[in-house]
Amino acid sequence: MAQIKGIRIQKVLSDNGVMSRRKAEEAIKQGRITVNGRPAVLGHAVNPSRDVIAVDGVRVQLARRKQNVYLMLHKPRGYVTTTSDELGRKCVIDLLKNAPAKVYPVGRLDRNSEGLLLLTNDGSFANLIMHPSNHISKTYRVTIRPDITDEQAAQMAAGVMLDGKMTLPATVLVLEKQEGRAVLQITIQEGRNRQVRRMCEAVGLEVARLKRVSVGPLKLGMLPPGEWRQLKPSELIALRNAASKK
What we know:
- Helices cover 22% and strands 30% of the residues.
- It is elongated, with a radius of gyration of 25 Å.
- It is α+β, with helices and mostly antiparallel strands.
- Strands 7, 8, 9, 10, 13, 14, 15, 16 and 17 form a nine-stranded mixed β-sheet that branches. A four-stranded antiparallel β-sheet has the order 3-2-5-6.
- Strand 11 (161-162) and strand 12 form a beta hairpin.
């Protein structure tokens, strides 16, 4: 018979504050603990959401394990990246009314910016993505006015001074040029406040539109503005791998 997968009963009782693992082992040896009406054994693997665990005949109420949720949202312009706003402005959370759990934004996109925004209830994942030492790349499609010179592009790529500190080297590509405007693709390896806008302003460029199109290996793709979806397992793995390689 295949072994039932689950969590050791000692750990379940300890994690739920019922008793320490050592006391749980003693209680199991004394026959005081049952699983689905039968005496438990040391190392007994249980499913907390399905199995009934009792101590001295009294059922143990187990807290449900939190389900980690990972979402990507195509943030439209005009929304602030907060869970609530004292000024009554529209928040990105307003777009997630049917989400499977309460989530929080990973990083920010300012009110006038749009594009890919990650949201999760997994704090360790959020820290992994946002921690400066991991240098998770972020790519933006930026429409600027009036035009851009080779010198300005080179200056942004090399680094500009913001708040007394140089930005890390960036990739700046000119995708198209029209009279009075140009479209750039800018990839940065850090996430300072309004960094791309401020980099452009530092070299004399006016940002008309800013859209984040990717975070690390994760791309916005064809997700419509205002819509969200859950990340695929392969996308989560790719994001974690991108952080761990730094």
